[in-house]
Design a protein that fits this description.
The chain has 183 residues and is α/β, with parallel strands linked by helices. The chain has 6 helices and 6 strands, in the order βββαβααβααβα. Strand 1 (4-11) and strand 2 (14-21) form a beta hairpin. The longest helix is centred in the last third of the chain and has 23 residues, at 155-177.
């Protein structure tokens, strides 16, 4: 049986754990997060495979794309993903992929996109169970009053990721408006 290849990856924001299965990225998560064991068990059971240290082409692609993201040179990711979770969790994670770079959305707004308004706790729980941090941008979800709420990498990392994205988005926007028009 094919294993889930895992590889630690040091970033300017902390250490991630990358994982691939059948050359699809199934893990890009903060190595020392509170729910590490729960996430790992869900992925291994869902894929019916065990972890083994190693590398793969998709892990190498993920490292390159994440390095470009942290350098402010990439605003989207184009990696084959394997999201391991319930149908509801996957619906929430798909909605996260639609949250634009450099923007935020409240848990309440996210809930209206995927479920009944009363399901906000279930949506928040699915958001917290995301095993593809940064790539599936759960860090872009904030409290209704604009406050930073929990994040697997810590609230400080969440704030720094949003600051990075806003700075990059601001540069991109300024460049779009300062392009000379042909006449």
């Amino acid at each position: 049986m094919e294993p889930i290849l895992i590889h630690p990856f040091h970033t300017p924001f902390g250490e991630l754990l990358l994982g691939s299965f059948n050359n699809e990225l199934c893990l890009c998560d903060w190595r020392y997060r509170r729910m590490r064991t729960t996430i790992d068990v869900r992925i291994q059971r869902g894929l019916q495979a065990e972890y083994a240290e190693g590398a793969s082409p998709v892990i190498d692609q993920a490292k390159a794309q994440l390095n470009a993201y942290f350098a402010g040179e990439r605003t989207t990711f184009d990696l084959p993903l394997r999201m391991v979770g319930t149908a509801f969790q996957q619906r929430v994670w798909q909605a996260l992929l639609a949250v634009p770079f450099g923007t935020t959305m409240s848990y309440a707004e996210l809930t209206t996109k995927v479920a009944e308004p009363t399901a906000i706790r279930a949506v928040a729980s699915a958001n917290g169970a995301n095993a593809l941090s940064i790539i599936v941008p759960c860090h872009r979800i904030i409290g209704s009053n604009g406050e930073m709420t929990g994040y697997a990498g810590g609230v400080g990392v969440k704030r720094r990721l949003l600051e990075l994205e806003r700075a990059v988005a601001g540069v991109v926007e300024r460049n779009l408006f300062n392009v000379p028009c042909g006449g």
